[in-house]
Amino acid sequence: METFGETELCFPQLLNASCLKPKRPHFEATLTYMLVYSIALITAVLNLLVIISISHFKQLHTPTNLLLLSLAVSDFFVGLLMFFQIMFIDGCWYLGDIMCTLYQYLAYVITSTSAGTMVLISVDRYVAICRPLHYSAEITKHRVKVCVCLCWICSIIFQTLNLQDVLKQPGQYNSCFGECVFFINYIGGVSDLIFTFILPITVIVVLYMRVFVVVLSQARAMRSHVAAVSLQRSVKVTKKSELKATRTLGFVIVVFLICLCPYYCVALTGQDNLLNGSSAAVVLCLYYFNSCLNPVIYAFLYPWFRKSIQLIVTLQILQPDSCDANMW
């Protein structure tokens, strides 16, 4: 029998019970680690800036921004989880079965919460564009807070039921020490596919198609000067603001779907629901990268976010009454 060197085993002291550690060129390994840690750090920091901005400045306490706050919280946790992702790339999991199960559980909860938040954002944009006269009455901060809380609670309960086999006996699907296998049974996989991917995408597409039709009709109406001349300026300013927000959030949703699709495309092919470390690393890294892109999109398209970053970095938020600063 061939004897493996210490560099080839995750836990050399366990001999044949340990998983093999794949050998990688030093330069490739160093570059990969630096890339993953850099993305994780940027993701956590940028989303923390979004959280601080919306939470601190009163002028940003709008229903739409509360939804962005929920998304930023989930993206912030994604940034923290990415620090553990390096072990998947390295090929060995050193934190034990319980931490592996917790890592899997949090990843699923965050994914379903993000999908639910995207649906709420789509509903917000639908009402803002298609029912503008009813927006202030139907979309209130209190209702948004309730919906966000329900989204998180339902995600936790849903994924607890889906992953109950793994939660009851952590590590039961691992074949050796140093492995962290992502497993979900057939029923759980189908329900996760339906409620976290198919239904949210269907709702998002239907709502944004409706928004797109209304936007086109409004554009034609404005070009043909249907609105009264005396009201045209105020109406135009309001519509321009809403259309810009809709365009920005639509871009966020498109990027989210692109990054989330690979995992569920694998699920749709009917392949084994058992994902090993390497395949899980690929699909998770792509999804995690989306959490880094969201605040970057805000920075380019939202002036208030750029201004809030300036106030935070220069520590002006520590001044009295800084929460009342004008962010527009």
Automatic annotation (TrEMBL):
| Membrane topology reported for the UniProt record | Multi-pass membrane protein
Compartments, as annotated in UniProt: Cell membrane
Asked whether the keyword Transmembrane is assigned, the reply is yes
Can you list the GO cellular component terms from the UniProt entry? plasma membrane
Assigned keywords, A-Z: Cell membrane, G-protein coupled receptor, Membrane, Receptor, Transducer, Transmembrane, Transmembrane helix
Q: Where are the transmembrane segments?
A: 31-54, 66-96, 102-123, 144-161, 193-216, 249-269, 281-301
Record's keyword annotation contains Transmembrane: yes
Q: Which family does it belong to?
A: Belongs to the G-protein coupled receptor 1 family.
Q: Give the protein name, as stated in the record.
A: G-protein coupled receptors family 1 profile domain-containing protein
